[in-house]
Amino acid sequence: MADFLKAFALTMKAEGGYVNDPKDPGGETYKGIARRMNPGWAGWKIVDMLKGQKRFPANLDGYEPLQEKIVAFYRANYWDRICGDGITNQDVAESVFDFAVNAGVVASVKVAQVAARTTVDGVIGPGTLSKINGMDPRVFLAFFSLGKIARYVSICEKRKESRKYLFGWVKRALEGV
Q1: Which domains does the chain have, with CATH numbers?
Q2: What share of the chain in percent tops pLDDT 90?
Q3: Is 150 left (phi over 0), alpha (psi -120 to 50) or beta?
Q4: How far apart are CA 14 and CA 17, in angstroms?
Q5: For the chain, which terminal residue's Cβ has fewer other Cβ atoms within 10 angstroms, N or C?
Q6: Are 98 and 172 in contact (CB under 8 A)?
Q7: Which residues pair with 28 in a beta bridge?
């Protein structure tokens, strides 16, 4: 079975640290957790408290209670929802998890279902897991990467402001995460 902490560490390399880009629809973001989409996340109280200290935002990374909340957030909101523990191949689990973080759980699951040639309903259940786990991981990842890129292009067609992210998104899709 796939290892959540390995997938989490890989995704965190892509998500980066603290950002407050006014053109980003998520607004203030830390480790990929957007405040506008997750205003009730308990970690925001800690971030706000640490804003008043020297070395902000560098001080966020070393504050263990905040880091624990981040790990718990990603496990509950992404890994568990993609049934990451039920995916047998680590590379496949990492890719589905990373795309769920970047594009949303339902989007990632639907692209995975298309890649696995199974019913597309946006929910991973036993049938979807069986199809994903039954495929050659290289074949699944090739189809899944193409689906991710198509999704990113679609986002950019609908929202011109997102075009600045396209190269990074495609790079992320092709690198396997």
Answers
A1: 4-174 (1.20.141.10)
A2: 79
A3: alpha
A4: 9
A5: N
A6: yes
A7: 20
Six-digit token string for 9? 């560490």
Q: Beta strand pairing status for 18-20 and 33-34?
A: unpaired
Alpha-carbon distances of 8 from 15, 75, 86, rounded to whole Å: 10, 8, 16
The alpha-helical segments, DSSP class H, found in the chain are: 4-15, 43-51, 58-61, 64-74, 90-103, 105-115, 126-134, 137-158, 163-174
Cα separation, 92 vs 112, in Å, equals 10
| Residue whose token pair is 């405040």 | 35
Give residue 176's pLDDT band: very low, low, confident or very high (50, 70, 90): low
Greatest C-alpha distance within the chain? 52
Q: Report cis status (omega within 30 of 0) of the bond before 57.
A: yes
Both tokens of residue 124? 């991973």
Give per-residue pLDDT as tens, 50-77. 998 999 999 999 999 999 999 999 999 9
Residue written as token pair 């965190």: 12
79: Cα within 13 Å, side-chain hemisphere: 20
46: amino acid identity, one letter: I
Place of tokens 């892509």: 14
Q: Give me the amino acid identity at 20.
A: N
